[in-house]
Amino acid sequence: MLNIAVKAARAAGAIINRASLDLDVLKINTKSPNDFVTEVDQAAEEAIIDTILTAYPGHGILAEESGRERGAKHSDFVWIIDPLDGTTNFIHGFPYYCVSIALAFRGKVEQAVVYDPTRNDLFIASKGRGAYLNDKRLRVSKRTRLADSIIGTGFPFRKGDNFQRYLKMMEDVMPLCAGLRRPGAAALDLCYVAAGMYDGFFETGLNPWDIAAGALMITEAGGLVGNFTGESDFMHQREILAGSPKIYGHLVKLLTPYSRVITAEEAAEAKAEQDAAQATPASALAASIAAAEQAQTEAPKRKAIRLRKKDAPTAGDDAPL
After folding, report:
1. pTM
2. Is 84 annotated for ligand binding?
3. Mind listing the pLDDT tens digit for each residue in 86-110?
């Protein structure tokens, strides 16, 4: 299965590399303000799904652009696909984007591939067997002091995102670390944590296809992944925190006040909504998640949302996905 994922990722990477040579003729559509999709995203996703379903026609698919339109609807095996993470970078010719493919079995991610076509960097991981970059075993960094660490993040960019909340997080984190970086492709950022290039990473508003593969890379490289409170439930919480064990612990202390972890009841409601949306395109799924998040923002009296007296409602450890 990992070999099939690698084959699919390289096929998509070839499409992306060819298109990068002539960006001027690229057809670009807007899913929402500052959220773009190109014909390259769609062609790469189709190539990935074709490769997977040729080998495993009974498996399920959850892809960013086409959602659950293809593949089996009730399989224990689900491929979670982002054909081009970092589309905005790509259309500007900024060489920081990747293909992300993860395979989940009964909700737990067991295989992961992230391919950077600009550098021909192939990150792979299998549950219990480690993570690798171009056949070199990956380990998270050994830094223990936040003051020595580079932390990756992603800035809010969609209409309705809580910019003030993010500014407060940055005010807390930036003075205490060696630097904050935001290249703009979360799947690749997470792989850089696994490789020890970053010491930690945090972001809100991400979808499963953004984080599924990268999260397995980190845990297989000896790191920790969770939500802002250090709990293992992050895949559908719209917040993620990752890092080497020591740095992860430091970041949990800083970011816990900004967590927006939902209750079990709300999680069940969200899962029901997601199950209902599994036959719809991913854009609709993303819209439903965004609507749920908006509802949380407008209902600050819910017990699940943790407040500080002077701060707005805020958002995200290691456990299997």
Report:
1. 0.79
2. yes
3. 999 999 999 999 999 999 999 999 9
